[in-house]
Amino acid sequence: MNTNELHEELLRMGRQPVPPPRQEFVEELLARINLGEDLPVPAPIQLVPRQPWIRFRMVAAGAVAAALLAAVGLFSLARENSGTTTGPQNLKPLNVSGQQVSATSKNLQVTTDGKVTGDSPPDGRINATCQAEARIKVGDRIFECQVDQSVTLTIQDGRVVDAFNETTKLGPQAQPAAKQTAAPVTAAPTTTSSATTTSAPPAESGSGKVIVVTNPTTPTTRPDPVLNPTVASAPPSASFDLKNVTNDANVTVSWPAYAGVGTFQYVVLQTISPNGPAPDTPTWSPTDPANVVATIPGVAATNYSVTLDGKGSIHVNTRFVSFRVAVVDNNNTILSLSNTLTLELKWAPLKPAGDPSPTTSSTTTTTTTTTAATATTAGRP
Amino acid sequence: MATTLRRIAVDYEPVRLAGDDGGAELEQQLVDRARSGDQVAFETLYRRYVKRIHAFAYRRSHSRELAEDVTAATFERAYRQIERFEWRGGGFGAWLFRIAANELADFYRRQQRTRSDRGQVAMGALHNTVNFDDVDRIEEGEDPARRMMVALGTLNTRYHEAISLRYLAGLSHEEAAEAMGVSKPVMAVTLTRALKALKKAMEKDGNQEGGGIR
Question: What is the DSSP letter of B24?
Answer without folding.
Answer: H
